[in-house]
Write a structure and sequence with these properties.
This is Helix-turn-helix domain-containing protein. By secondary structure, the protein is of the alpha+beta class. Helix content is 50%, strand content 16%. The strands form 3 sheets. Strands 11, 12, 13, 14, 15 and 16 form a 6-stranded mixed sheet that branches. A 5-stranded mixed sheet has the order 1-5-4-3-2, with helices on both faces. A 5-stranded antiparallel sheet has the order 7-6-10-9-8. Helix 5 packs antiparallel against helix 9 and helix 17 crosses helix 18. It starts with 8 loop residues before the first helix and ends with a helix.
């Protein structure tokens, strides 16, 4: 008898929630088993496995959906982008074929939903291993019993994922490793310089490492998935392993690899689902309330935080992607410790957090302090900035708070800042200037009027009229202060000022003329 759990269409919809997939037309029950994901190509002959979930890319009318239902045969369901055109002939065809029609939210991409569904189906169908971290600790204890030696399971960065009993029998280095959940830097450097990691990752068999005066020797084996090294198993032993125990350690590495892959797949699925739900909350549309309920976040008095790593510090794309996720995980823990109904997820390259705040005034300032505290905590490991949006009274205003946070974050990037947090209110004018700059670039506008004439004159004659004007405006018309800024005598400055008004045709007594030229200076940056 096959005890494998069925990945039914109903179970898939329950796990993803109606914010991602919703039923547009149902044949009745939704108990059909989903066996895989198929991307529909109208140029190919239909070749579907029974129970396939068909992603109908580009199918946008009831007539085309009916034609696909006729060709879908044994499929479990057809997914089309919302809004789904459902008429009575389509409902009749759904009842006739027994194939459900589902609507996919327009915010989701086909690539995202394909990856999400495949990960979810793999998770629902593969019950071989325990998903929880406790499963790794159980494996460590089992390996300990097989080898008669205390064991640790570590990742590629020598962080301890799990450890067995009997660690007190090992040396001080192992005790420090377990207590710190990381191999101490001194020992890691010693292993690197001795070529141990190179030997370990190049070998598919266990290796024996003599530590001499540094402690008890080690037997270790790399944990692999194909050519990818996921981590390693380390046993503290006093002599080389017997052939039987070497084989036991090598076999254990295969089981640990399955466990690590399952945990990674489960974590990736969970993260993608949380990111999709949080994206729905941040959009603030009609599905925001359901998404907030599924995430368990508050629906009133919210501030959005947008945090992003300073990417200029990275030259390795893989390391950047890995650090982004760790950075987001740290943000999620930080806001959850402040409020149990907070949530965070990585959306693109930005880690967003929705933070509920109690009444009391100055909510944006309090959220900025939360962001500053977070950046201080992660600063030694991650250089980053955080923008904070204005308070949203309810979910309908969350989209505005998210836009505020994005704009504040953009201002910090434009400043070249790192390790800083800013509320939208405090950078409002700079954010507006950036928006003006976007509009100017989109419309391919160029400097005009007096400012254009002054730029052209400076370029032709090598003069400093624009710099003179900038100093004058920055000093609020104080000639002596402005002259000191450009290091000339006040009389020389007055002469240049007279010349630029004549050449540019600029009336400095007109506040609109002053504002126009000041804005052009800021936007065009010349």
């Amino acid at each position: 008898m096959d005890a494998r759990p069925r990945a039914s269409l109903r179970r898939v919809l329950e796990d993803l929630g109606s914010t991602v997939l919703d039923v547009a037309a149902s044949p009745g029950d939704l108990d059909a088993e989903v066996t895989g994901v198929h991307i529909h190509d109208p140029l190919d002959e239909p070749s579907l496995q029974e129970g396939a979930l068909v992603l109908a890319v580009g199918v946008d009318s009831a007539e085309r959906v009916r034609a696909l239902l006729d060709a879908a045969g044994p499929a479990a369901g057809i997914v089309v982008k919302q809004p789904v055109e459902v008429d009575e002939p389509l409902r009749a065809k759904v009842r006739e074929t027994g194939v459900a029609v589902l609507g996919l939210t327009r915010a989701a991409s086909w690539a995202q939903v394909a990856a999400l569904l495949r990960s979810l189906l793999a998770e629902l169908r593969d019950p071989l291993l325990d998903e929880s971290p406790d499963g790794l600790f159980s494996l460590a204890n089992a390996v300990c019993a097989l080898l008669d030696a205390p064991v640790t399971i570590e990742d590629r960065s020598s962080r301890v994922l799990a450890y067995s009993e009997r660690q007190e029998e090992a040396d001080p280095g192992r005790v420090a490793t377990v207590l710190g959940r990381q191999v101490p830097e001194r020992y890691r450097r010693m292993l690197e310089e001795g070529g141990v990691f190179r030997r370990l990752y190049q070998s598919r068999e266990p290796i024996y490492i003599e530590l001499h005066d540094e402690g008890i020797n080690r037997a270790a084996v790399a944990v692999r998935s194909g050519d990818e090294v996921l981590g390693s198993i380390w046993a503290a032993v006093r002599e080389p392993l017997s052939e039987q125990r070497r084989r036991a350690l090598a076999d254990a590495a295969k089981i640990v690899a399955l466990q690590l892959l399952r945990q990674r797949a489960g974590a990736d699925t969970s993260r993608r689902l949380r990111a999709d739900l949080l994206s729905t909350v941040l959009a603030g549309g009609g599905d925001a309330a359901e998404a907030a309920g599924r995430l368990g976040v508050a629906s009133e008095r919210l501030c959005v935080l947008a945090a992003q790593l300073t990417e200029e510090a990275y030259d390795d794309a893989a390391r950047l992607e890995s650090d982004r996720q760790r950075f987001c995980d740290a943000l999620a823990l930080h806001v959850a410790a402040i409020h149990p109904k907070a949530a965070a997820a990585l959306v693109g390259s930005v880690a967003y957090a929705v933070l509920p705040l109690q009444a009391g005034g100055q909510e944006e300032a309090r959220a900025v302090r939360v962001a500053e505290s977070f950046l201080t905590r992660v600063g030694p490991r991650h250089a980053a900035n955080t923008g904070v949006g204005r308070l949203a009274a309810d979910l309908a205003e969350v989209a505005r708070s998210r836009a505020d946070a994005d704009r504040a974050l953009r201002v910090l990037r434009a400043r070249g800042a790192s390790g800083q947090a800013a509320g939208y209110t405090s950078v409002h004018f700079e954010a507006l200037l950036l928006q003006f700059s976007d509009l100017v670039r989109a419309e391919k506008q160029a400097p005009n009027g007096p400012y254009e004439r002054l730029l052209a004159y400076d370029a032709e004659h090598g003069s400093e009229l624009v710099a003179t004007l900038r100093a004058y405006l920055d000093a609020f018309g104080d000639v002596n202060a402005a002259a000191a800024r450009v290091h000339v005598h006040a009389n020389t400055f007055r002469y240049r000022l007279k010349r630029l008004t004549e050449i540019g045709g600029l009336d400095l007594s007109d506040p609109d003329a002053r504002l126009s030229v000041m804005l052009q200076m800021r936007i065009f940056g010349r």
